[in-house]
Task: structure prediction
Amino acid sequence: MQTKPKLREDEEALARLEKLEREAWVEKDELKKHYFGVSETLKHYIERRFSFKAAEQTTREMLVNLSSTGVSDESVRELFQLFEALDRVKFTDYRPERGSLEPKVMLEGARDWIKKTRRKVETPHAP
Result:
């Protein structure tokens, strides 16, 4: 039996976001599930990509650790803004208005951040 090759951390995270989108939590009015899914995907990606336990940390702790990995200040700020919006829905009674683009913006923001911070893949040069 052949085992499936393990996906790179960015490929896995982007696949998880696609699956989350297919779950259609926003359309089912399950916003907390959508926001938790985006947050958990980002934290899992950060753990694999930057080799520290992000899932068990607060947003502040995670950002401090991320800053020490060489990630640009701009990328840390972008992630802070993303998590500020994600945490607002996750941990309060706040809900974006029905039909708001915010949930999609969170998903796209996560995708963009992952693509921006993923490892550069070496491509073999043609002879």
Q: What stands out?
A: The chain has five helices and no strands. The first helix runs from residue 9 to 23. The CA atoms of residues 82 and 109 lie 7 Å apart. The two ends are 34 Å apart (CA to CA).
